[in-house]
Amino acid sequence: MVESQFWKSLFRVGIPNTNRKRVLAMLGNVVLHLHPVKTRKSGVKMRYTWCAGGVTFFLFLVLTFTGLLLMFYYRPTVEYAFVDILDLREQVPFGIMREVHRWGAHAMVITVWIHMFRVFMTGSYKPPREFNWVIGVILLVLTLLLSFTGYLLPWDQLAFWAVTVGYEIARASPFIGDEFAFVLFGGYQLGPNALLRWYVLHVVGLPLTVGFLIAIHFWRIRKDGGITGPL
Question: What's residue 19's pLDDT?
Fold first, then answer.
């Protein structure tokens, strides 16, 4: 079997029984090539931060999957948004997806902070990894923006008044406050435009940006020598 042309077309390197073949197998795989060829033993042990970076990425995948399911039922309009949220919880089969999405978002914010704390405490932001530290900070900000934009989507009293605070903060920006608020919320007061605009940001703009930066983040981890310090 291993000598057949079919097998060789799938596994060009052969059985990775030498260091050279192991390297070639890593570099020739679309998934494995994102990781370093060699990793410190301390980098694959479960330590006190519970592999927070990997858990954060896993939660991002969970949120992407559950978010796609929720998009089949949710309508981003003032008339239907709150009703659809109630239906997702009470009527729609597998309505637990809404709760998984909600609690997964809270957990992702927590694991991002834990991951950033671990990187800071172990000095993993120092040269030559300062570029990846900046990418990580941007991902932290985008994660908070994902959480904040999703907070408006139920369009209940809690969401409306919480986002009103954000709207007033935007208006308080020096010199361009009203224009800044208009760009973010689609008008000079909260309404249908704000709901639709934040829905598009939540399901399209921010997730695509986060996914792109995560790919760069993983690539830089490999280029910079792998995970540093204890997990």
Answer: 87
How far apart CA 106 and CA 71 sit, in angstroms, is 19
- Residue pair 209/149 in contact (Cβ under 8 Å)? The answer is no
C-alpha to C-alpha distance for 113 and 59, rounded to whole angstroms: 14
Q: Do 161 and 154 form a contact (C-beta atoms < 8 A)?
A: no
- Is the CA virtual torsion 14, 15, 21, 23 positive or negative? positive
Average pLDDT, 10 consecutive residues per value, the chain (231 residues): 78 82 82 72 68 92 94 92 89 81 95 93 87 95 94 90 88 85 83 91 96 92 71 45
**What separation in angstroms does the CA of 156 have from each of 67, 88, 104, 148, 195?**
19, 14, 20, 14, 12
Q: Alpha helices of 172-223 — where are they, by DSSP H?
A: 177-185, 192-200, 206-223
- Nearest-CA neighbor of 81 among 167, 192, 188? 192
The whole-model pTM stands at: 0.82
* pLDDT at 39 (0 to 100): 72
Q: How far is CA 144 from each of CA 112, 157, 210, 214, rounded to the nearest angstrom? A: 10, 21, 11, 15
